[in-house]
Amino acid sequence: MTTNKNNHLTTSWGAPVGDNQNSMTAGSRGPTLIQDVHLLEKLAHFNRERVPERVVHAKGAGAHGYFEVTNDLSAYTKADFLSAVGKRTPMFIRFSTVAGELGSSDTVRDPRGFAVKFYTEEGNYDLVGNNTPVFFIRDAIKFPDFIHTQKRHPQTHLKNPNAVWDFWSLSPESLHQVTILMSDRGIPATLRHMHGFGSHTFKWVNAEGKAVWVKYHFKTEQGVRNLDVELAAKLAGENPDYHTEDLFNAIASGDFPSWKLCVQIMPVEDADTYRFDPFDVTKVWSQKDYPLIELGRMVLDRNPDNYFAEVEQATFSPGSFVPGIEASPDKMLQGRLFAYADAHRYRVGANHNALPINRPKAETNHYQRDGQMRFDGNGGGAVYYEPNSYGGPTESPAHRTAPFEISGTADSVAYDHHDHYTQAGDLYRLMSEDERGRLVRNIVGAMKPVERDEIKLRQIAHFYKADPEYGTGVAEGLGLPVPKDE
Protein backbone atom coordinates (compact mmCIF):
# COMPACT_ATOMS: atom_id res chain seq x y z
CA MET A 1 0.00 0.00 0.00
CA THR A 2 1.34 3.48 -0.86
CA THR A 3 1.55 6.04 1.92
CA ASN A 4 -0.39 9.27 1.44
CA LYS A 5 2.17 11.95 2.35
CA ASN A 6 -0.54 14.49 3.24
CA ASN A 7 -2.36 11.90 5.37
CA HIS A 8 -5.57 12.61 3.43
CA LEU A 9 -8.39 10.07 3.69
CA THR A 10 -9.07 8.61 0.26
CA THR A 11 -11.52 6.29 -1.41
CA SER A 12 -10.39 2.78 -2.33
CA TRP A 13 -9.59 4.12 -5.80
CA GLY A 14 -7.33 6.80 -4.33
CA ALA A 15 -9.44 9.94 -4.63
CA PRO A 16 -9.44 12.31 -1.62
CA VAL A 17 -12.56 12.25 0.58
CA GLY A 18 -14.06 15.66 1.35
CA ASP A 19 -16.50 14.62 4.08
CA ASN A 20 -16.47 11.36 5.99
CA GLN A 21 -18.99 12.42 8.65
CA ASN A 22 -22.09 13.34 6.66
CA SER A 23 -23.90 11.63 3.82
CA MET A 24 -24.83 13.64 0.75
CA THR A 25 -28.56 14.40 0.85
CA ALA A 26 -31.13 16.34 -1.16
CA GLY A 27 -31.38 19.23 1.27
CA SER A 28 -30.71 19.02 5.03
CA ARG A 29 -33.69 16.67 5.54
CA GLY A 30 -33.87 15.15 2.09
CA PRO A 31 -33.21 11.53 1.16
CA THR A 32 -29.65 10.33 0.66
CA LEU A 33 -28.37 10.64 -2.89
CA ILE A 34 -27.19 7.59 -4.79
CA GLN A 35 -24.44 9.78 -6.24
CA ASP A 36 -22.65 9.70 -2.85
CA VAL A 37 -20.29 7.06 -4.16
CA HIS A 38 -18.06 7.24 -1.07
CA LEU A 39 -21.02 6.25 1.13
CA LEU A 40 -22.02 3.47 -1.26
CA GLU A 41 -18.46 2.11 -1.39
CA LYS A 42 -18.12 2.16 2.42
CA LEU A 43 -21.40 0.32 2.97
CA ALA A 44 -20.86 -2.17 0.14
CA HIS A 45 -17.35 -3.01 1.34
CA PHE A 46 -18.56 -3.30 4.94
CA ASN A 47 -21.16 -5.86 3.82
CA ARG A 48 -18.36 -7.94 2.35
CA GLU A 49 -15.77 -7.67 5.13
CA ARG A 50 -16.25 -11.23 6.28
CA VAL A 51 -15.33 -14.23 4.22
CA PRO A 52 -17.36 -17.32 5.16
CA GLU A 53 -15.97 -18.80 8.35
CA ARG A 54 -14.41 -22.22 8.21
CA VAL A 55 -16.94 -25.04 8.56
CA VAL A 56 -14.58 -26.60 11.11
CA HIS A 57 -11.73 -24.92 13.00
CA ALA A 58 -13.51 -21.56 12.69
CA LYS A 59 -12.14 -20.03 15.93
CA GLY A 60 -8.39 -19.72 15.88
CA ALA A 61 -5.23 -17.84 16.83
CA GLY A 62 -1.95 -17.67 14.96
CA ALA A 63 1.68 -16.62 15.19
CA HIS A 64 4.85 -16.44 13.13
CA GLY A 65 8.09 -18.15 14.04
CA TYR A 66 10.85 -20.38 12.81
CA PHE A 67 11.75 -24.04 12.71
CA GLU A 68 15.37 -25.07 13.31
CA VAL A 69 16.79 -28.50 12.55
CA THR A 70 18.60 -29.98 15.56
CA ASN A 71 19.24 -33.53 14.31
CA ASP A 72 20.33 -34.74 10.88
CA LEU A 73 17.71 -37.11 9.49
CA SER A 74 18.61 -36.57 5.84
CA ALA A 75 19.23 -40.32 5.56
CA TYR A 76 15.43 -40.65 5.66
CA THR A 77 14.18 -37.63 3.70
CA LYS A 78 15.51 -35.39 0.94
CA ALA A 79 13.33 -32.47 2.11
CA ASP A 80 15.66 -29.49 1.78
CA PHE A 81 14.40 -27.65 4.87
CA LEU A 82 15.38 -30.70 6.96
CA SER A 83 18.74 -31.18 5.27
CA ALA A 84 21.22 -29.75 7.78
CA VAL A 85 21.53 -29.17 11.51
CA GLY A 86 21.07 -25.45 12.23
CA LYS A 87 19.00 -24.77 9.11
CA ARG A 88 16.14 -22.38 9.91
CA THR A 89 12.86 -22.11 8.04
CA PRO A 90 10.26 -19.37 8.64
CA MET A 91 6.83 -20.71 9.54
CA PHE A 92 3.32 -19.70 10.57
CA ILE A 93 1.02 -21.64 12.88
CA ARG A 94 -2.72 -21.52 13.44
CA PHE A 95 -4.25 -23.06 16.57
CA SER A 96 -8.01 -23.59 16.67
CA THR A 97 -10.97 -25.28 18.24
CA VAL A 98 -12.82 -27.71 15.98
CA ALA A 99 -16.59 -27.58 16.45
CA GLY A 100 -17.44 -24.04 17.56
CA GLU A 101 -18.24 -21.00 15.50
CA LEU A 102 -15.98 -17.97 15.07
CA GLY A 103 -17.30 -16.34 18.26
CA SER A 104 -17.28 -19.43 20.46
CA SER A 105 -15.24 -19.82 23.61
CA ASP A 106 -11.59 -20.87 23.62
CA THR A 107 -11.99 -23.00 26.75
CA VAL A 108 -14.55 -25.55 25.58
CA ARG A 109 -13.86 -29.29 25.63
CA ASP A 110 -12.74 -29.88 22.06
CA PRO A 111 -9.66 -31.03 20.15
CA ARG A 112 -7.37 -28.18 19.09
CA GLY A 113 -6.19 -27.75 15.55
CA PHE A 114 -2.41 -27.49 15.17
CA ALA A 115 -1.66 -26.34 11.60
CA VAL A 116 1.90 -25.37 10.64
CA LYS A 117 3.00 -23.75 7.38
CA PHE A 118 6.73 -24.04 6.64
CA TYR A 119 7.91 -21.50 4.03
CA THR A 120 10.66 -23.71 2.57
CA GLU A 121 12.98 -22.96 -0.33
CA GLU A 122 11.21 -25.71 -2.32
CA GLY A 123 7.69 -24.40 -1.71
CA ASN A 124 5.31 -24.37 1.24
CA TYR A 125 4.92 -27.48 3.36
CA ASP A 126 1.73 -27.63 5.46
CA LEU A 127 1.50 -30.01 8.39
CA VAL A 128 -2.16 -29.88 9.41
CA GLY A 129 -2.76 -31.80 12.63
CA ASN A 130 -4.34 -31.61 16.06
CA ASN A 131 -3.25 -31.65 19.69
CA THR A 132 -4.15 -35.35 19.75
CA PRO A 133 -2.30 -38.22 18.05
CA VAL A 134 -5.53 -39.91 16.87
CA PHE A 135 -8.93 -38.90 15.48
CA PHE A 136 -12.58 -39.95 15.89
CA ILE A 137 -12.96 -41.65 12.51
CA ARG A 138 -10.61 -43.30 10.04
CA ASP A 139 -12.32 -42.83 6.68
CA ALA A 140 -13.02 -39.42 5.13
CA ILE A 141 -16.43 -40.56 3.88
CA LYS A 142 -17.69 -40.30 7.49
CA PHE A 143 -16.29 -36.82 8.11
CA PRO A 144 -19.31 -34.70 7.03
CA ASP A 145 -21.62 -36.85 9.17
CA PHE A 146 -19.29 -36.63 12.16
CA ILE A 147 -19.04 -32.84 11.95
CA HIS A 148 -22.81 -32.53 11.57
CA THR A 149 -23.14 -34.18 15.00
CA GLN A 150 -20.83 -31.56 16.52
CA LYS A 151 -22.79 -28.67 15.04
CA ARG A 152 -26.29 -27.36 15.77
CA HIS A 153 -29.64 -29.12 15.37
CA PRO A 154 -31.30 -27.86 12.17
CA GLN A 155 -34.59 -27.13 13.96
CA THR A 156 -33.63 -25.94 17.45
CA HIS A 157 -30.24 -24.47 16.46
CA LEU A 158 -28.89 -25.92 19.71
CA LYS A 159 -26.00 -28.31 20.29
CA ASN A 160 -27.33 -31.86 20.26
CA PRO A 161 -25.79 -34.44 22.65
CA ASN A 162 -28.16 -37.07 21.26
CA ALA A 163 -26.49 -36.80 17.86
CA VAL A 164 -22.98 -36.71 19.36
CA TRP A 165 -23.31 -39.90 21.39
CA ASP A 166 -25.51 -41.70 18.88
CA PHE A 167 -22.79 -41.27 16.25
CA TRP A 168 -19.95 -42.20 18.60
CA SER A 169 -21.78 -45.24 19.94
CA LEU A 170 -22.34 -46.44 16.36
CA SER A 171 -18.71 -45.69 15.44
CA PRO A 172 -16.60 -47.63 17.95
CA GLU A 173 -13.39 -46.53 16.23
CA SER A 174 -13.98 -43.16 17.95
CA LEU A 175 -13.39 -44.61 21.44
CA HIS A 176 -9.67 -43.79 21.65
CA GLN A 177 -10.19 -40.14 20.74
CA VAL A 178 -13.30 -39.85 22.92
CA THR A 179 -11.24 -41.06 25.88
CA ILE A 180 -8.60 -38.39 25.20
CA LEU A 181 -11.23 -35.68 24.67
CA MET A 182 -13.06 -36.48 27.91
CA SER A 183 -9.84 -36.67 29.91
CA ASP A 184 -7.94 -33.74 31.43
CA ARG A 185 -6.32 -33.17 28.03
CA GLY A 186 -9.71 -32.17 26.56
CA ILE A 187 -9.30 -28.58 27.83
CA PRO A 188 -5.71 -27.27 27.52
CA ALA A 189 -4.73 -24.50 29.93
CA THR A 190 -3.32 -22.47 27.04
CA LEU A 191 -2.31 -23.04 23.46
CA ARG A 192 1.30 -22.95 24.65
CA HIS A 193 0.82 -25.80 27.12
CA MET A 194 -0.24 -28.61 24.80
CA HIS A 195 1.47 -31.02 22.45
CA GLY A 196 0.78 -31.12 18.71
CA PHE A 197 0.69 -34.05 16.29
CA GLY A 198 0.65 -34.60 12.56
CA SER A 199 -1.76 -37.42 13.53
CA HIS A 200 -1.62 -39.12 10.12
CA THR A 201 1.13 -41.37 8.83
CA PHE A 202 3.21 -39.76 6.10
CA LYS A 203 5.88 -41.03 3.75
CA TRP A 204 9.45 -39.75 3.78
CA VAL A 205 11.67 -40.42 0.75
CA ASN A 206 15.45 -39.93 0.75
CA ALA A 207 17.78 -38.88 -2.07
CA GLU A 208 18.20 -42.51 -3.17
CA GLY A 209 14.43 -42.99 -3.46
CA LYS A 210 14.15 -45.19 -0.35
CA ALA A 211 10.96 -44.60 1.63
CA VAL A 212 9.93 -44.89 5.29
CA TRP A 213 6.67 -44.18 7.11
CA VAL A 214 6.72 -41.33 9.62
CA LYS A 215 4.59 -39.72 12.35
CA TYR A 216 5.17 -36.21 13.77
CA HIS A 217 5.07 -35.22 17.46
CA PHE A 218 5.43 -31.60 18.63
CA LYS A 219 6.35 -31.67 22.33
CA THR A 220 5.65 -28.43 24.18
CA GLU A 221 8.66 -27.07 26.05
CA GLN A 222 6.35 -25.17 28.39
CA GLY A 223 5.01 -28.43 29.85
CA VAL A 224 1.49 -29.83 29.48
CA ARG A 225 -1.12 -28.05 31.57
CA ASN A 226 -4.90 -28.42 31.48
CA LEU A 227 -7.88 -26.51 32.85
CA ASP A 228 -10.22 -27.65 35.59
CA VAL A 229 -13.74 -27.97 34.15
CA GLU A 230 -15.22 -25.37 36.53
CA LEU A 231 -12.49 -22.84 35.79
CA ALA A 232 -12.88 -23.50 32.05
CA ALA A 233 -16.63 -22.82 32.31
CA LYS A 234 -15.98 -19.63 34.28
CA LEU A 235 -13.47 -18.40 31.70
CA ALA A 236 -15.87 -19.25 28.88
CA GLY A 237 -18.26 -16.67 30.32
CA GLU A 238 -15.77 -14.07 31.50
CA ASN A 239 -13.11 -14.22 28.80
CA PRO A 240 -14.09 -16.41 25.84
CA ASP A 241 -10.88 -15.34 24.05
CA TYR A 242 -8.62 -16.48 26.88
CA HIS A 243 -6.33 -18.69 24.77
CA THR A 244 -6.06 -16.12 21.98
CA GLU A 245 -5.16 -13.40 24.49
CA ASP A 246 -2.64 -15.59 26.33
CA LEU A 247 -0.75 -16.49 23.15
CA PHE A 248 -0.64 -12.89 21.91
CA ASN A 249 0.49 -11.48 25.26
CA ALA A 250 3.15 -14.15 25.78
CA ILE A 251 4.77 -13.40 22.42
CA ALA A 252 4.37 -9.63 22.85
CA SER A 253 6.21 -9.81 26.20
CA GLY A 254 9.08 -11.86 24.74
CA ASP A 255 8.03 -15.14 26.35
CA PHE A 256 8.32 -17.07 23.09
CA PRO A 257 6.62 -20.51 23.20
CA SER A 258 8.52 -23.43 21.72
CA TRP A 259 8.04 -27.07 20.81
CA LYS A 260 10.51 -29.87 20.15
CA LEU A 261 9.58 -31.76 16.99
CA CYS A 262 10.18 -35.50 17.11
CA VAL A 263 9.29 -38.24 14.65
CA GLN A 264 8.59 -41.93 14.75
CA ILE A 265 10.05 -43.79 11.77
CA MET A 266 8.75 -47.16 10.54
CA PRO A 267 10.43 -49.19 7.79
CA VAL A 268 8.09 -49.57 4.83
CA GLU A 269 7.95 -53.36 5.11
CA ASP A 270 6.74 -53.21 8.76
CA ALA A 271 3.39 -51.85 7.62
CA ASP A 272 2.36 -55.34 6.50
CA THR A 273 3.11 -57.03 9.82
CA TYR A 274 2.52 -54.43 12.56
CA ARG A 275 -0.16 -55.41 15.07
CA PHE A 276 -2.24 -52.32 14.23
CA ASP A 277 -2.73 -50.91 10.76
CA PRO A 278 -0.17 -48.08 10.72
CA PHE A 279 -2.36 -45.98 8.42
CA ASP A 280 -5.41 -46.07 10.74
CA VAL A 281 -5.56 -42.59 12.29
CA THR A 282 -7.59 -43.89 15.25
CA LYS A 283 -4.48 -45.81 16.40
CA VAL A 284 -1.02 -44.84 17.64
CA TRP A 285 2.31 -46.56 17.10
CA SER A 286 3.82 -47.74 20.35
CA GLN A 287 6.89 -45.67 21.22
CA LYS A 288 8.46 -48.88 22.53
CA ASP A 289 8.30 -50.22 18.97
CA TYR A 290 9.19 -46.96 17.21
CA PRO A 291 10.88 -44.52 19.62
CA LEU A 292 10.67 -40.77 19.23
CA ILE A 293 13.64 -39.31 17.36
CA GLU A 294 14.38 -35.62 17.76
CA LEU A 295 14.21 -33.63 14.52
CA GLY A 296 14.10 -29.94 15.40
CA ARG A 297 12.62 -27.09 17.38
CA MET A 298 9.79 -24.68 16.60
CA VAL A 299 9.76 -21.22 18.19
CA LEU A 300 6.95 -18.63 17.90
CA ASP A 301 8.42 -15.13 18.14
CA ARG A 302 6.14 -12.73 16.24
CA ASN A 303 2.47 -11.87 16.44
CA PRO A 304 0.42 -11.15 13.30
CA ASP A 305 0.16 -7.50 12.30
CA ASN A 306 -3.42 -8.01 11.15
CA TYR A 307 -5.66 -10.87 12.26
CA PHE A 308 -7.82 -11.06 9.14
CA ALA A 309 -4.97 -10.81 6.63
CA GLU A 310 -2.84 -13.42 8.36
CA VAL A 311 -4.87 -15.70 10.65
CA GLU A 312 -8.28 -15.68 8.99
CA GLN A 313 -6.95 -15.80 5.42
CA ALA A 314 -4.21 -18.35 6.18
CA THR A 315 -5.00 -21.54 4.29
CA PHE A 316 -3.51 -24.94 5.09
CA SER A 317 -3.75 -28.20 3.19
CA PRO A 318 -2.21 -31.55 4.10
CA GLY A 319 -1.67 -31.91 0.35
CA SER A 320 0.90 -29.09 0.29
CA PHE A 321 3.97 -31.31 0.11
CA VAL A 322 7.60 -30.64 -0.80
CA PRO A 323 10.08 -33.11 -2.34
CA GLY A 324 10.94 -35.79 0.21
CA ILE A 325 7.53 -35.79 1.95
CA GLU A 326 4.53 -37.61 0.47
CA ALA A 327 1.12 -39.05 1.34
CA SER A 328 0.43 -42.46 2.84
CA PRO A 329 -2.61 -44.70 2.16
CA ASP A 330 -4.31 -43.33 5.32
CA LYS A 331 -7.98 -43.12 4.25
CA MET A 332 -8.64 -39.95 6.27
CA LEU A 333 -5.55 -38.27 4.88
CA GLN A 334 -6.49 -39.23 1.33
CA GLY A 335 -9.83 -37.43 1.70
CA ARG A 336 -8.25 -34.39 3.32
CA LEU A 337 -5.83 -34.01 0.39
CA PHE A 338 -8.84 -32.87 -1.63
CA ALA A 339 -11.20 -31.39 0.95
CA TYR A 340 -8.92 -28.82 2.57
CA ALA A 341 -7.68 -27.15 -0.59
CA ASP A 342 -11.20 -27.23 -1.99
CA ALA A 343 -12.52 -25.48 1.14
CA HIS A 344 -9.99 -22.69 0.60
CA ARG A 345 -10.91 -22.31 -3.06
CA TYR A 346 -14.53 -21.83 -1.96
CA ARG A 347 -13.92 -19.72 1.15
CA VAL A 348 -11.00 -17.47 0.17
CA GLY A 349 -10.85 -17.98 -3.59
CA ALA A 350 -8.99 -19.85 -6.28
CA ASN A 351 -5.99 -17.54 -5.83
CA HIS A 352 -5.66 -18.03 -2.06
CA ASN A 353 -2.03 -19.15 -2.41
CA ALA A 354 -1.13 -15.76 -3.88
CA LEU A 355 -2.12 -13.93 -0.69
CA PRO A 356 0.90 -12.70 1.31
CA ILE A 357 0.31 -15.06 4.26
CA ASN A 358 0.10 -18.08 1.95
CA ARG A 359 2.51 -17.05 -0.78
CA PRO A 360 5.58 -19.32 -0.97
CA LYS A 361 9.03 -17.83 -0.48
CA ALA A 362 10.07 -20.04 -3.39
CA GLU A 363 9.42 -18.78 -6.92
CA THR A 364 6.21 -20.14 -8.47
CA ASN A 365 5.93 -21.06 -12.16
CA HIS A 366 2.64 -22.46 -13.40
CA TYR A 367 -0.12 -21.98 -15.93
CA GLN A 368 -3.00 -21.09 -13.62
CA ARG A 369 -4.69 -17.91 -14.76
CA ASP A 370 -7.61 -15.64 -13.92
CA GLY A 371 -10.15 -16.27 -11.16
CA GLN A 372 -11.54 -13.87 -8.58
CA MET A 373 -9.12 -11.52 -6.83
CA ARG A 374 -6.20 -12.14 -9.19
CA PHE A 375 -4.18 -9.18 -7.91
CA ASP A 376 -0.74 -9.89 -9.40
CA GLY A 377 0.31 -9.65 -13.04
CA ASN A 378 -1.71 -12.78 -13.92
CA GLY A 379 1.21 -14.12 -15.95
CA GLY A 380 1.29 -11.09 -18.19
CA GLY A 381 1.68 -12.08 -21.83
CA ALA A 382 3.70 -15.21 -21.08
CA VAL A 383 2.76 -18.57 -22.56
CA TYR A 384 -0.31 -19.91 -20.78
CA TYR A 385 -0.44 -23.61 -21.73
CA GLU A 386 1.77 -26.72 -21.61
CA PRO A 387 3.35 -28.37 -23.46
CA ASN A 388 4.58 -25.45 -25.50
CA SER A 389 7.56 -24.52 -27.67
CA TYR A 390 8.05 -21.05 -26.17
CA GLY A 391 10.30 -21.98 -23.26
CA GLY A 392 7.63 -22.12 -20.57
CA PRO A 393 8.19 -24.05 -17.31
CA THR A 394 8.20 -27.84 -17.63
CA GLU A 395 8.09 -30.75 -15.24
CA SER A 396 11.25 -32.07 -13.58
CA PRO A 397 11.24 -35.90 -13.52
CA ALA A 398 13.63 -35.91 -10.55
CA HIS A 399 10.74 -34.69 -8.39
CA ARG A 400 8.21 -37.37 -9.31
CA THR A 401 6.37 -38.97 -6.42
CA ALA A 402 8.07 -42.17 -5.27
CA PRO A 403 6.22 -45.23 -6.66
CA PHE A 404 4.54 -47.67 -4.30
CA GLU A 405 2.88 -51.02 -4.82
CA ILE A 406 -0.88 -51.47 -4.66
CA SER A 407 -2.97 -54.60 -4.89
CA GLY A 408 -6.53 -55.85 -4.49
CA THR A 409 -9.91 -55.22 -6.01
CA ALA A 410 -11.42 -51.74 -6.25
CA ASP A 411 -14.18 -51.76 -3.65
CA SER A 412 -15.58 -49.83 -0.69
CA VAL A 413 -13.77 -51.59 2.13
CA ALA A 414 -12.94 -50.94 5.77
CA TYR A 415 -9.58 -51.36 7.42
CA ASP A 416 -8.91 -55.02 8.19
CA HIS A 417 -8.25 -54.35 11.87
CA HIS A 418 -11.30 -53.86 14.12
CA ASP A 419 -9.74 -53.74 17.60
CA HIS A 420 -11.03 -50.37 18.79
CA TYR A 421 -10.64 -51.19 22.46
CA THR A 422 -7.04 -52.17 23.29
CA GLN A 423 -5.45 -48.75 22.89
CA ALA A 424 -8.33 -46.92 24.59
CA GLY A 425 -8.10 -49.36 27.49
CA ASP A 426 -4.32 -48.98 27.68
CA LEU A 427 -4.75 -45.21 27.85
CA TYR A 428 -7.32 -45.52 30.63
CA ARG A 429 -5.01 -47.77 32.67
CA LEU A 430 -2.11 -45.33 32.22
CA MET A 431 -4.08 -42.63 34.02
CA SER A 432 -3.84 -42.08 37.76
CA GLU A 433 -6.83 -42.88 39.93
CA ASP A 434 -7.74 -39.18 40.13
CA GLU A 435 -7.46 -38.79 36.35
CA ARG A 436 -9.70 -41.81 35.78
CA GLY A 437 -12.25 -40.37 38.19
CA ARG A 438 -12.34 -37.03 36.37
CA LEU A 439 -12.59 -38.82 33.02
CA VAL A 440 -15.64 -40.79 34.15
CA ARG A 441 -17.29 -37.69 35.68
CA ASN A 442 -16.74 -35.72 32.47
CA ILE A 443 -18.30 -38.48 30.38
CA VAL A 444 -21.26 -38.89 32.74
CA GLY A 445 -21.90 -35.14 32.67
CA ALA A 446 -21.73 -35.10 28.87
CA MET A 447 -24.03 -38.14 28.46
CA LYS A 448 -26.73 -37.23 30.96
CA PRO A 449 -28.61 -34.98 28.49
CA VAL A 450 -28.86 -37.87 25.99
CA GLU A 451 -32.56 -38.76 25.85
CA ARG A 452 -32.42 -42.43 24.84
CA ASP A 453 -31.01 -45.08 27.16
CA GLU A 454 -30.36 -47.24 24.11
CA ILE A 455 -27.64 -44.83 22.99
CA LYS A 456 -26.13 -44.60 26.49
CA LEU A 457 -26.03 -48.38 26.91
CA ARG A 458 -24.43 -48.86 23.51
CA GLN A 459 -21.68 -46.40 24.41
CA ILE A 460 -21.21 -47.87 27.89
CA ALA A 461 -20.58 -51.24 26.27
CA HIS A 462 -17.67 -49.72 24.34
CA PHE A 463 -16.15 -48.28 27.51
CA TYR A 464 -16.59 -51.66 29.21
CA LYS A 465 -14.81 -53.51 26.41
CA ALA A 466 -11.89 -51.11 26.74
CA ASP A 467 -11.73 -51.72 30.50
CA PRO A 468 -14.44 -53.16 32.78
CA GLU A 469 -13.75 -50.53 35.46
CA TYR A 470 -14.09 -47.80 32.83
CA GLY A 471 -17.50 -49.02 31.63
CA THR A 472 -18.73 -49.77 35.16
CA GLY A 473 -17.89 -46.26 36.36
CA VAL A 474 -19.82 -44.62 33.52
CA ALA A 475 -22.79 -47.01 33.94
CA GLU A 476 -23.05 -46.34 37.67
CA GLY A 477 -22.73 -42.59 37.13
CA LEU A 478 -25.67 -42.73 34.71
CA GLY A 479 -27.69 -45.10 36.90
CA LEU A 480 -27.76 -47.74 34.21
CA PRO A 481 -26.94 -51.47 34.35
CA VAL A 482 -23.38 -52.61 33.87
CA PRO A 483 -22.97 -54.60 30.64
CA LYS A 484 -22.54 -58.33 31.00
CA ASP A 485 -19.35 -60.02 29.83
CA GLU A 486 -19.80 -61.41 26.34
UniProtKB/TrEMBL annotation:
| An example molecular function term from Gene Ontology annotations | catalase activity
Record flagged with keyword Metal-binding: yes
**EC numbers for this chain:** 1.11.1.6
**What UniProt keywords apply to this chain's record, in alphabetical order?**
Heme, Hydrogen peroxide, Iron, Metal-binding, Oxidoreductase, Peroxidase
Enzyme class label:
oxidoreductase
Source domain of life: Bacteria
* Family affiliation: Belongs to the catalase family.
- What is the name attached to this protein's record? Catalase
